[in-house]
Amino acid sequence: CGCNIAFFLVSMPSKQKNIWGGDYCDANCVGERCCAEFDLMEMNIHSFQATSHPCSDYRTPPFTSQSYACSHGDDKWVKFGNGDRNYGPSDSFTINSQKPYVFRLLV
Among candidates 64, 90, 35, which has minimal Cα distance to 99? Predict the structure, then answer.
C-alpha cells in the first residue's frame, strides 16, 4: 500500500510564519516551524498507531518550538501491526484492516 492516513492535533499557530507564509507547524518541523503534535490516528492496511510528539520547550501558542526540543520519533501510545499478527489485511489477523472496525482512544 502506498497510502497513509493521519488524523492529528498540533499546537498552532507558530509564532513565526513558515517558509510558505502560513501558521502551520508540527513536531517534524514541516515548513521549518516546530510545535507539539499528537497523532490520534496514523494508519495504512499494515499498521495503525497513535503517537505523542511532545516538545520540551512547550509554551501556550502562539509559540514556535526548537527542533531539538521536539520528539520526532517513536513515542507510540498505541501500536498495531508492523509485523505483529494483531492488525493486517486478512482474516488471519486479530483486526482485519480490510473490514470495518471501531477504534476508541480513552486517555
Answer: 90
**For the chain, how far is it from start to end, CA to CA, in angstroms?**
30
Cell of 39: 497523532
**How high is the pLDDT of residue 2?**
72
* CB-based contacts of 98, cutoff 8 Å, min separation 6: 45, 89, 90
- Whole-model pTM: value is 0.80
Q: Cβ-count burial of 46 within 10 angstroms (0-12 exposed, 13-18 middle, 19+ buried)?
A: middle
Total count of residues recorded for the chain: 107
Divide the 107 residues of the chain into consecutive groups of 10 and give the mean pLDDT of each group.
Answer: 84 92 93 92 90 93 94 79 88 94 79
